């Protein structure tokens, strides 16, 4: 009888185990579409054995049935690591590709007309102007196309800057999301640790949520993680601790007061002495954007890509120069501004505008060294009064720029100085548009006009060139400070086209030819690394080609990495994913096991009943 009732316990254990299996399988099926859910699998083990006696060869035991040993939370740590690495790298190149595409979009279409057309139309206007510079129709055409060219360029630049603002907003969102993930991870760590401290059950649902957050974090930044024996996961971002056993270290947001651009930094590693004076503080940056490459395994994370694409601020042609006004080297360029698609595009666009504008202005209103003027031949120095009344002595006339009066043309008003086409908002072309009186000493001439040994004080009017000041962009020929000369808009005939020759005013056809030639001169370089010069007319094709090549590299890399990521995810889902067909097959197995255990109990019950009945009727 004892053995018979013991058999009932064996059958009951089978019912319970099969029931656990059915419940687990049902839970898997109910979460088949739950993001981040990891399939659970029941692992069975034998119950305790009872010794029933000693046989001649060995001890005899009787089993008490089967029980659930554990419910496996199936994951492959190697696939997880590989997926998160490729997810971060794909996010980096995908964000970079999107930024390049945005640049191309602004260039291909600007206010309904491609920027390329504005360049071509401007060139055509000068070709017409060269045919007859005195024709007011041609003069007006130059002004119209110059205005359109400048407006198109400024519209493209505004588009670039607007997109930088959009990227900046994304950066804020990503930083805040990283911090939110940190908070959630700490909370999950504590709850998992509390539940699993008794070593009775595993917090599977909480672990699923935590792993999903780590997956998301891997796409935002380069991470390293490790699970402790206590169940806590420690995480590093870019080699700096982000989440430990009890705390998370939030990423700080440093906002530039001038541009509004934000930069992530580590507050715990920074030295902030005065929050209101950034110059007194040291901010430890989250990323080193100068050391990004596949070889260094640092091309990972969407946030880094966004920061690099946006850059540190708005750029112009001065981005290709150092603080002293000297062109930067190709190496410095590649390590610096070249890494920002937006700043580099702005600098390349402004470089075109700066060179076109200055070259056109230098033809309409040419400048030269003072030593080249005929009236200063043999003069070693002169002096003049500046705006504040101070005497300025110029002792090197070869480096002092003034209007080239000997070789300039004027407009129909015949007034000096000749008017430039493009003007800077911050200053006039010359220090004093009415001319500056200079004092100098020259040999006294005899009655025949020959120089003598005596010197005499002389005075002359010169137009001193207001040179560009790299410390003040309003004094530079850059897109942000350029407009069309209002005097020319009011009267297009004031555009220089007349030259005094042989005691009469004649149309300066050479000026028109010079303006027409500049478009195809092979002297323009996109950037410090560009070794193949091109003309202005070929700028757009070369520029869009360079950006397109960069975009293709990013796009093809992103697509390749996406394929790799999907392959790893497919393999990972083979481990952690729920297959309805497989789960239904397993459910049938457990159902059959449940039915078998039930039949087993029925048989044992019938046996016990038969024995009891037999004992009751001798």
Can you characterise this structure?
With 618 residues, this protein is of the alpha+beta class. It has a domain at 2-74 and 579-616. 46% of the residues lie in helices and 17% in strands. It has helices at 2-30, 77-108, 115-131, 136-196, 204-220, 302-310, 330-335, 341-364, 486-490, 509-517, 539-576, 580-616; strands at residues 40-46, 49-54, 59-63, 66-73, 223-227, 233-237, 240-243, 252-255, 262-271, 282-285, 367-369, 382-385, 391-394, 401-403, 422-424, 436-445, 451-462, 482-484, 498-501, 504-507. A four-stranded antiparallel beta sheet has the order 13-12-16-17, with no helix packed on it. Strands 5-6-7 form a three-stranded antiparallel beta sheet. The chain has a three-stranded antiparallel beta sheet with strand order 8-9-10, covered by helices on one side. The radius of gyration is 41 Å and the shape is elongated. The model has no long low-confidence stretch (mean pLDDT 87).
Identify the quaternary structure here.
single chain
Counting helices, strands and paired strands, the structural category is alpha+beta
Radius of gyration using CA atoms only: 41 Å
Helix content: 40-55%
Which whole number gives the mean pLDDT?
Answer: 87
Figure out the total of helices.
12
Features:
elongated, four-stranded antiparallel sheet, 618 residues, alpha+beta, three-stranded antiparallel sheet
Q: Could you outline the blueprint of secondary structure elements for this entry?
A:
Blueprint: H1 2-30, E1 40-46, E2 49-54, E3 59-63, E4 66-73, H2 77-108, H3 115-131, H4 136-196, H5 204-220, E5 223-227, E6 233-237, E7 240-243, E8 252-255, E9 262-271, E10 282-285, H6 302-310, H7 330-335, H8 341-364, E11 367-369, E12 382-385, E13 391-394, E14 401-403, E15 422-424, E16 436-445, E17 451-462, E18 482-484, H9 486-490, E19 498-501, E20 504-507, H10 509-517, H11 539-576, H12 580-616
Antiparallel strand pairs: 1-4, 2-3, 5-6, 6-7, 8-9, 9-10, 11-14, 12-13, 12-16, 15-18, 16-17, 19-20
Helix pairs in contact: 1-12, 2-4, 2-5, 2-6, 2-11, 3-4, 3-10, 4-5, 4-6, 4-8
């Amino acid at each position: 009888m004892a053995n018979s009732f013991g058999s009932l316990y064996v059958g009951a254990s089978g019912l319970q185990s099969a029931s656990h299996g059915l419940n687990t399988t049902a839970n898997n099926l109910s979460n088949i579409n739950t993001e981040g859910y990891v399939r659970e699998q029941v692992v069975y083990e034998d119950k305790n054995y009872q010794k029933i006696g000693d046989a001649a060869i060995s001890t005899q035991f009787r089993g008490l049935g089967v029980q659930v040993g554990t419910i496996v939370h199936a994951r492959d740590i190697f696939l997880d690591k590989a997926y998160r690495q490729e997810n971060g790298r794909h996010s980096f190149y995908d964000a970079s590709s999107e930024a390049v595409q945005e640049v191309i979009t602004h260039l291909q279409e600007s206010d309904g007309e491609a920027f390329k057309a504005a360049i071509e139309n401007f060139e055509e206007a000068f070709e017409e102007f060269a045919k007859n510079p005195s024709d007011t129709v041609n003069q007006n055409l130059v002004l119209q196309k110059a205005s359109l060219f400048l407006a198109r360029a400024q519209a493209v630049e505004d588009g670039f800057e607007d997109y930088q603002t959009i990227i900046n907003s994304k950066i804020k969102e990503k930083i805040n999301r990283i911090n939110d993930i940190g908070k959630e991870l700490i909370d999950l760590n504590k709850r998992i640790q509390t539940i699993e401290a008794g070593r009775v059950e595993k917090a599977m649902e909480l672990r699923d949520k935590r792993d999903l957050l780590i997956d998301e974090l891997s796409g935002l930044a380069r991470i390293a993680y490790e699970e402790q024996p206590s169940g806590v996961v420690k995480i590093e971002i870019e080699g700096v601790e982000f989440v430990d056993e009890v705390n998370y270290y939030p990423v700080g947001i440093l906002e530039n007061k001038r541009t509004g651009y934000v930069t992530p930094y580590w507050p715990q590693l920074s030295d902030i002495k005065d929050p209101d004076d950034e110059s007194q503080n040291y901010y430890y940056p989250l990323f080193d954007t100068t050391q990004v490459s596949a070889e260094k395994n640092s091309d990972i994370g969407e946030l880094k890509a966004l920061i690099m694409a946006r850059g540190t601020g708005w750029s112009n042609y001065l981005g290709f120069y150092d603080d002293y006004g000297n062109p930067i080297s190709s190496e410095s360029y590649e390590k610096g501004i070249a890494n920002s698609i937006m700043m580099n595009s702005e600098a390349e666009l402004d470089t075109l505008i700066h060179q076109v504008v200055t070259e056109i202005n230098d033809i309409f209103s040419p400048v030269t060294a003072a030593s080249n003027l005929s009236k200063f031949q043999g003069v070693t120095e002169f002096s003049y009064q500046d705006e504040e009344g101070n005497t300025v002595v110029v002792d090197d006339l070869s480096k002092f720029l003034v209007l080239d009066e000997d070789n300039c043309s004027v407009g129909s008003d015949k007034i000096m100085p000749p008017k430039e086409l493009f003007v800077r908002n911050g200053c006039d072309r010359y220090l004093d548009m009415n001319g500056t009186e200079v004092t100098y000493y020259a040999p006294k001439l005899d009655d025949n006009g020959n120089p003598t040994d005596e010197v005499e004080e002389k005075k002359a009017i010169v137009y001193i060139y207001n040179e560009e000041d790299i410390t003040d962009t309003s004094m530079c020929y850059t897109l942000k400070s350029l407009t069309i000369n209002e005097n020319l808009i009011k009267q297009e005939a004031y555009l220089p086209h007349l030259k005094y020759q042989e005691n009469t005013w004649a149309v300066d056809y050479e000026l028109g030819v010079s303006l027409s030639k500049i478009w195809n001169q092979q002297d323009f370089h996109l950037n410090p690394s560009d070794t193949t010069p091109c003309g202005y007319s070929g700028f757009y094709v070369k520029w869009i080609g360079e950006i397109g090549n960069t975009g293709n590299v990013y796009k093809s890399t992103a697509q390749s990495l996406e394929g790799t990521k999907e392959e790893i995810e497919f393999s990972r889902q083979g481990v952690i994913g729920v297959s309805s067909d497989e789960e239904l097959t397993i459910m049938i197995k457990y159902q059959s096991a449940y039915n078998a255990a039930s039949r087993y109990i029925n048989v044992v019950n019938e046996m016990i009943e038969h024995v009891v009945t037999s004992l009751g009727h001798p």
